């Protein structure tokens, strides 16, 4: 077996608008707190090669990942299903995903970006060397809380205490998976899988960084010179870090504390990892069309007219947050209504993408996946180590659980993105992820 790693700096210029937290916030970056990276891991066994790249970005869209995969194929011959593009979902990076008003995209940066990410993949393939993999699942506590079913925004002095734990830890990830890569007796890289919304910093923050996972893994790389660490984002749709919505000063303090907690867990995983027997590697994609909710065109047109009337008047102010939020919905309904009239889906056909690396199944979807969905997949999966991943290849909003269909993730975010709510995403995503796993196991 061979493995290769590579990374490339994808930090934008200072001054670009940062994404996340809300529309039209004008969070123009003022400094780089920590560089953003595209970090790639390639593996080869019995003539089969796979590469996964983890990017310190909010998320990507299909046209971007298509460019990345085309460039990698041109240089290495790897097929689409053998290249997995993943994002960590930082809210302190540039706008790279189309959400109405959620940060202005920097066109020169976006034009260059896919070729940078592709180069990390190409370099990782070119760096393939004989290697050994090992794995550990270790405790990872004191980081996340379930923002839907638990108390959010707790006092800073409480959550920064070393013994803090959420009221309902069972509704979060309380362990992380660490995969260690060694070659010629030294650690050349590692991957850390954990499900938690990575955001610690606040809407008033103007520093570029990869949030707590990016800071943690960059620090570990400094401890292990020559190594490259990838963060694999798990089911985080309803899980926040324990510090959110604080002041910028409090957020920056908490960022280092929480990154330190995560780094400690990964460090323990690296020391405890046991040999990983890789008998087979393979990949698969399952194209899927999820069921959209049915909404009447007349009702949508009525809502659009009401929102236009709220904005299209002489005494409206573009500085009014309510007006700016209405504009988000106006743009969204102007996208949705024509699609419905033409009988078109508001979603692209979604490519649910997976890798099998020995006993590990990486099961990726483009959603912010809720914990209950991951738990259902994990309970029914046949693989010894099934890892449900978010933000794979593109970003399409939330995959909410059954109890949360009417909330922010299930109803508001799809509309904001110019899409209809998904009617049965919990059941359908569990089904297709298990279908993906069966396909990986059958190959």
Can you summarize this structure?
With 443 residues, the protein is α/β, with parallel strands linked by helices. It has 2 domains: 2-276 and 350-409, no CATH class; 297-341. It has helices spanning 62-76, 107-126, 156-159, 211-223, 248-272, 297-311, 321-341, 371-380, 408-416, 425-442; strands at residues 2-9, 31-32, 37-45, 48-55, 83-87, 129-130, 132-139, 144-146, 175-183, 186-194, 207-208, 228-233, 239-241, 274-275, 281-288, 350-357, 360-364, 368-369, 385-389, 398-399.
Write a structural description.
- This protein is α/β, with parallel strands linked by helices.
- It folds into two domains: 2-276 and 350-409, no CATH class; 297-341.
- Helix content is 34%, strand content 24%.
- It has helices at 62-76, 107-126, 156-159, 211-223, 248-272, 297-311, 321-341, 371-380, 408-416, 425-442; strands at 2-9, 31-32, 37-45, 48-55, 83-87, 129-130, 132-139, 144-146, 175-183, 186-194, 207-208, 228-233, 239-241, 274-275, 281-288, 350-357, 360-364, 368-369, 385-389, 398-399.
- It has a five-stranded mixed sheet with strand order 5-4-3-1-6, covered by helices on one side. Strands 12-10-9-7-14 form a five-stranded mixed sheet. A four-stranded mixed sheet has the order 15-16-17-19.
- A hairpin with a 2-residue loop joins strand 3 (37-45) and strand 4.
- Helix 1 packs parallel to helix 2, helix 4 (211-223) crosses helix 5 and helix 8 packs parallel to helix 10.
């Amino acid at each position: 077996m061979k493995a290769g790693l590579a990374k490339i700096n994808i930090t934008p210029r200072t001054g670009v608008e940062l994404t996340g937290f809300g529309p039209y916030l004008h969070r123009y970056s003022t400094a780089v707190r920590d560089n953003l990276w595209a970090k790639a891991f390639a593996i080869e066994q019995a003539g089969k090669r796979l590469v996964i790249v983890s990017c310190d970005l909010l998320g990507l869209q299909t046209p971007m990942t298509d460019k990345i995969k085309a460039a990698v194929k041109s240089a290495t011959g790897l097929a689409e299903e053998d290249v997995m593009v993943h994002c960590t979902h930082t809210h302190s990076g540039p706008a790279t995903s189309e959400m109405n008003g959620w940060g202005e995209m920097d066109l020169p940066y976006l034009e260059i970006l896919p070729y940078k990410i592709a180069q990390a993949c190409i370099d990782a393939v070119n760096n393939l060397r004989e290697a050994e993999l090992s794995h550990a699942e270790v405790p990872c506590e004191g980081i996340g809380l379930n923002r839907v079913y638990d108390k959010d925004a707790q006092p800073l002095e409480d959550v920064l205490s070393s013994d803090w734990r959420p009221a309902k830890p069972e509704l979060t990830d309380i362990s992380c998976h660490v995969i260690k890569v060694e070659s010629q007796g030294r650690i050349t890289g590692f991957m850390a899988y954990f499900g938690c919304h990575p955001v610690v910093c606040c809407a008033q923050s103007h520093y570029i960084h990869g949030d707590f996972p990016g800071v943690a893994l960059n620090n570990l790389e400094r401890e292990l010179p020559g190594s490259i660490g990838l963060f694999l984002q798990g089911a985080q749709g309803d899980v926040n870090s324990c510090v959110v919505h604080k002041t910028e000063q409090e957020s920056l303090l908490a960022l280092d504390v929480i990154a330190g907690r995560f780094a400690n867990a990964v460090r323990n995983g690296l020391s405890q990892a046991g040999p990983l027997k890789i008998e087979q590697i393979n990949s698969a994609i399952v194209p899927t069309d999820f069921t959209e909710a049915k909404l009447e065109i007349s009702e949508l047109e009525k809502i659009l007219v009401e929102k236009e009337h709220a904005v299209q008047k002489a005494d409206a102010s573009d500085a009014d947050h309510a007006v700016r939020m209405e504009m988000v919905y106006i743009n969204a309904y102007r996208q949705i209504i024509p699609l419905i009239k033409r009988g078109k889906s508001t979603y692209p056909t979604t490519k649910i993408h997976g890798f099998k690396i020995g006993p590990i199944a990486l099961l990726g979807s483009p959603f912010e996946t809720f914990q209950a969905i991951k738990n259902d997949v994990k309970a029914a999966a046949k693989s010894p180590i099934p890892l449900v991943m978010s933000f794979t290849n593109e970003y399409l909003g939330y995959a909410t659980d059954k109890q949360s269909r009417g909330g922010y993730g299930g109803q508001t975010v799809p509309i904001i993105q110019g899409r209809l709510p998904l009617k049965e995403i919990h059941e359908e995503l569990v089904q297709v992820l298990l279908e993906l796993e069966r396909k990986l196991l059958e190959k």
